[in-house]
Amino acid sequence: QVQLVESGGGLVQPGGSLRLSCTASGSIASMKTVGWYRQAPGKQRELVAAISFNGNLNYADSVKGRFTISRDNAKNTVYLQMNSLKPEDTAVYYCKADSWNLGTYYWGQGTQVTVSS
């Protein structure tokens, strides 16, 4: 069992930046993929960005050029650097880690990001 803890959310003005962290209780490097998802009120949870075991990156079109996902294996942590934030980025952001065991994955508890003036 792996526990994921997100941190770094908060209230920021449009155009501002935040860095989210997702720290795992176990080895983040042993995971097949680690991703950041978000869910806004009344909307479905969506993929924001993901990083695979070999470093491949994947971003939602809506965040390309603004968000950057990265990983520090030594700290068992995955980061999401969010720049040029917009009000539509407001959501609860979740970290998800996919194991190599088919159908096994882990979610964090989420962290709220609010972009508002």
Description:
The protein is an all-beta fold and 117 residues long. The chain has strands spanning 4-7, 10-12, 18-24, 33-39, 46-52, 57-59, 67-72, 77-82, 91-98, 105-107, 111-115. The strands form two sheets. Strands 2, 4, 5, 6, 9, 10 and 11 form a seven-stranded mixed beta sheet that branches. The model has no long low-confidence stretch (mean pLDDT 96).
Question: Which helices and strands, and how do they pair?
Answer:
Layout: E1 4-7, E2 10-12, E3 18-24, E4 33-39, E5 46-52, E6 57-59, E7 67-72, E8 77-82, E9 91-98, E10 105-107, E11 111-115
Parallel strand pairs: 2-11
Antiparallel strand pairs: 1-3, 3-8, 4-5, 4-9, 5-6, 7-8, 9-10, 9-11
Fraction of residues in β-strands: over 45%
Structural class: mainly beta
Average pLDDT reading: 96
Q: Largest beta sheet, briefly?
A: 7 strands, mixed
Oligomer state of the chains in this structure = single chain
Q: Would you report the number of β strands?
A: 11
What is the first-to-last residue Cα distance?
40 Å
The 3D shape can be described as globular
Topology order in helix (H) and strand (E) letters: EEEEEEEEEEE
What count of helical segments does DSSP give? 0
Write down the Rg. 13 Å
Helix content: under 10%
| Residue runs with pLDDT of under 50 for 5 or more positions | none
